[in-house]
């Protein structure tokens, strides 16, 4: 038995703070909690008790109870034998969102994210997809950097998986056996003086990208070019492509960690906009 269901580790608000929280129904924190409540109920096959919601969301029961009452007033949730489930209003809202999602093409959402990433990084941003034969990536969209000195590529250009950040990020979503089969099949060539051509080393690089969630190349597909990439997924968890920051190595070499954080954050934001959870 829990000693204090309202006690959240690391959070010790005073009585006035909690009362103020209840009054601020429209605060950003309350909006976030509403979204998290609906997500938790969407993910559950059974009604969820208030205590269970409190544990899952690390939120005091008193705060959740107030939110649930408001959601129930709009038929977004409903109480069932002391637990909560989605109400009819949620399904109507879901249908409306699905229709809006149909009108707003996925490509528009990806493109919007690419623009954000280009502005934040100051570099060219690419979208790379794998060819059907699995040996090459194709750049299908780009947002060019505003810098005079920038990486330039044309839509439709193709590069081998093993030598590009986008290709390695896409390979990292495949099984180790599929990666080994690819490396045995493909003709590994040196595209720049420092291109990695050792198949065992390439396998280890792909495994590292799988663990870290992103891939990064320095002077691999071309001398003087650094790439940083993470994959984008849609609502069905299908890989849409790889989001790539492409930058001159001279400008990127001191920003590798920053570029990795930026591409990871934006790939996650785009994936979430496409319905991936």
From TrEMBL:
Which Pfam families does the record cross-reference, listed alphabetically? HTH_IclR, IclR_C
User: Which intervals carry biased composition (Low complexity)?
Assistant: 8-18
Q: Which parts of the sequence belong to the IclR-ED domain? A: 89-276
Q: Which residues form the HTH iclR-type domain?
A: 28-88
Key words of the record? DNA-binding, Transcription, Transcription regulation
**Region labeled Disordered — which residues?**
1-30
Which SUPFAM superfamilies does the entry mention? GAF domain-like, Winged helix' DNA-binding domain
State if DNA-binding is listed as a keyword.
Answer: yes
Q: Which Gene3D superfamilies match?
A: 3.30.450.40, Winged helix-like DNA-binding domain superfamily/Winged helix DNA-binding domain
Q: What name does the UniProt record give this protein? A: IclR family transcriptional regulator
